[in-house]
Amino acid sequence: MKSRLSETLSFNGRGSIVCSCCEYKICDQDLHWKKSVIISEESMQDLCGDNYTVSQGLLLRRFFCPGCYALLDTETAIHDDPFLYDKIIK
Ligand SMILES: [Zn+2]
Q1: Is residue 88 in some structural domain?
Q2: In the chain, which end has fewer C-beta atoms inside a 10 angstrom radius, N or C?
């Protein structure tokens, strides 16, 4: 049975995490999915220009589906920070 992991990702009911848009198999459901997708990292300074003064070295990470290039998630981080994972507590 298919169920949602997030707005953009689903469990396919057969042990995998898939893109909700194109059904591309991202990885096994017991793995960290962000290690299996296309990642873009850009500095907030470069994205926002000279008016950005909040924090030097802050990055915007964007995660894209390898199958359809849909944007799956974003996060802000400092270089070499580990990926952030949502944890669902029932
Ligand atoms: Zn996709």
Answers
A1: no
A2: C
- Residue 26: other Cβ atoms inside 10 A: 24
* 16 Cα to the center of ligand 1, angstroms: 14
- Domain-located, residue 36: yes
Is 44 among the domain residues?
Answer: yes
Distance 55 CA to ligand 1 centre (A): 32
Does the pTM of the predicted model rise above 0.85?
A: yes
Over residues 44-55, the pLDDT tens digits come to 888 888 877 777
Distances (CA, A) of 47 to 51, 71, 78: 10, 17, 15
Q: Is residue 35, in this structure, part of any structural domain at all?
A: yes
Domain count, the chain: 1
